[in-house]
Structures are given as structure tokens and as C-alpha cells.
Amino acid sequence: MPEGPSIVILKEAVQQFTGQKVISAFGNSKIDMDRIKDQNIISFKSWGKHFLICFEDFTLKVHLLMFGTYRINERKDSAPRLSLVFSNGELNLYTCSIKLLEGNVNLHYDWSADVMNKDWNPKLAKKKLQKIPDEMICDALLDQNIFAGVGNIIKNEVLYRTFIHPESLTGKISSDTLDTIINECSKYSFEFLEWKKIYQLRNHWLVYTKKVCQRCNLPIQYKKTGVKNRRSFYCPNCQTLYS
Question: What is the 8-class DSSP label of residue 42?
Fold first, then answer.
């Protein structure tokens, strides 16, 4: 599933279509294609893992799910979920979820929860964490209402950077350490973005899918953790468990 930085890359890649009129819209999505045709794109936005195509009175919310892909000015052999054709090119979306949101996009999203948005509010994120003291930090970091855009790669890398065991209870982690974790979520997301753009992301992984801790030279542990049952990679020697 693409994480926030990958959606930012998509948003940046389609800016050529901002202000353009949709000449034709088709695909196997169940949304009303006639509603889209002849409408002008007001803007493209991202919120966490959501790619947003904004029109004057409605927005298309696109989620690429686990295997979603897109093509700009080219097509795949498979049927698109949605194709938008403009005078200067086309955008094709595949194997994704598309929903129509009525009204202004700002009515649907809290931009302060997006770790890559200019309105990201780390203090609000901390208040939300303090309300779930019995939740494992591995689950809390994947809560899109707190850390929109953070996915499993970012979760693992941030916890390794901050020396925190993924099964630590949020309420047992010190206030200062919570601040560090919160800040790293945003910092690492922007680093992820830059590495992804130059196809170097995997080269910078410190713990995700790794076998040996680079700090301790001991085996990295792997297990599915938390209620979300997502993959965690961690060093039991240098990542402290707070429980």
C-alpha cells in the first residue's frame, strides 16, 4: 500500500492537468462519469494515503489500496478504474478505490493530521496519543486520524530511529520521547519522499526487512504486532519495550 510520500509524488506528477477541462472520463468505477466530463480540475491534493482530484463542487477520493497503479500519458493493457482525458494528456488509474465527495474538499479532511501537510500539528497528534495510553505504539503510528500518511515502512523506521519497541504502550512512553517519535514521523516522511524520487529508498532502510541490527550486530526480530497485525522489524536489544 503506497504511503504518504508516494501519493505526494503522484500529486506533483499530475500538476500539468491543473485547470484543464476533462474531455472524457471512462473506466469501470461506479462513479458517475457524466458528472466529471467537461468539468475543470481545480486542484490536486493529497491527504495521507488519499489522492484527491478536486472540482468546483465535488472531489474524487482515490485510494490505491494494496496494488493500485497509475499511468500518465500512457495506458496499461488492463481496464482502468478511471481514465481522465485532457487536451494536453491523460491520467489513468488502475486497481484502486474511487469515491465521490460532495462539496468543498476542506469539509472532509483535517489537514493538521497529515504529517506532510503545511498545516501538520504535532501538538494535536500528541494530545490524540495521550487519549490512547493502552494502545501499542505500532498501532498508534498507523492510525490515519493521528498520522495520516504513515505506513508500515515509516512506522518501522521511526521506531528503530527512536529506540522504541513496537509493542510499547503509548501511555508508558515518556513525554519527551513521544515528541521525538511524532517529529520523526514527519521528518522521515520527507526523507522518504526525496529517496523515492531518486529510486534510493530501499538503500536507506535501517531495519525494515533487515536481518541484523546495524547498531548491535544482533539478529533483527520479525513478527506481526498489535491489533492491526502488521509486520514489525525490531532489535530487542536496543529498542526498549515500555509496558
Answer: -
Range of the domain at 153: 112-234
pLDDT value at residue 1 = 75
Place of cell 536489544: 237
* Total number of domains in the chain: 2
Identify the CA nearest to 188 among candidates 1, 2, 5.
Answer: 5
* 63 CB-near residues (< 8 Å, 6+ apart): 49, 50, 51, 96, 97, 98
3 state SS for 87-108: CCEEEEEECCEEEEEECCHHHC
144 in the same domain as 167: yes
Beta bridge partners, 45, equal: 52
Mean pLDDT by 10 residues, the chain (243 residues): 94 97 97 96 98 97 95 96 97 97 96 97 98 98 98 98 98 98 98 97 97 97 97 98 97
- Written in H, E and C, the secondary structure of 108-175 is CCCHHHECCCCCCCHHHHHHHHHCCCCCEHHHHCCCCCCCECCCHHHHHHHHHHCCECCCCEHHHCCH
User: Does one domain contain both 120 and 219?
Assistant: yes
